[in-house]
Amino acid sequence: MQHAADPFDRFEAWFAEATASEPSDPNALALATVDARGRPSVRTVLMKGRDRHSIVFYTNLCSAKADALAAHPHAEALFHWKSLKRQVRMNGPVASVDDAEADTYYATRPRLSRLGAWASFQSRPMESRAMFEARLAEIDARFPGEETPRPPFWSGFRLTPETIEFWEDREGRLHERERFTATVTGGWRSQLLFP
Predict the structure, then answer these.
(1) pTM, whole model, 2 decimals?
(2) Does any domain span residue 34?
(3) Do 33 and 69 contact (CB within 8 A), yes or no?
(4) Domain that holds residue 158
(5) d(CA 158, CA 37)
(6) Residue 194 reports pLDDT greater than 70
(7) Is residue 19 part of a domain?
């Protein structure tokens, strides 16, 4: 494993390799949250933004994950790149992105995805697929053409890791693991972990 002083340098290198080798969605991550009753939930979402300190994903603000994040604004993300035999875990607080950032990303989505954001009551019970498709047709008629504003109930969340763990497969399950923990001075402390 190539060691980097800043875990985001290693994440960027690994993500570039995953982007070149993964057959589908190298930006997919399993997002774990805890709801208001303390019950865990995990689902796959897509990382749609990142910088030197955080990763960003988007969702309907009425979804189960948004409800959980409102109750406990802390989450863990797991990237698993099977073809590379690597994974990265990020754990830390989660906060909403600002409207300008959400608007900018929303405008890059394909038209059908933008319409779907309006039409879906994400995570809520649905009588039938036909009902959803009828809602989609209504929204399509409501917003003809390419201009589709971002729904007020749809936005993004930024996870700012306090810990980042790198895992790499090794023969005989003698895996290599290293965990980085953020320090109060803004740096990182690293620690190798037994497999």
Answers:
(1) 0.92
(2) yes
(3) yes
(4) 7-109+152-193
(5) 23
(6) yes
(7) yes
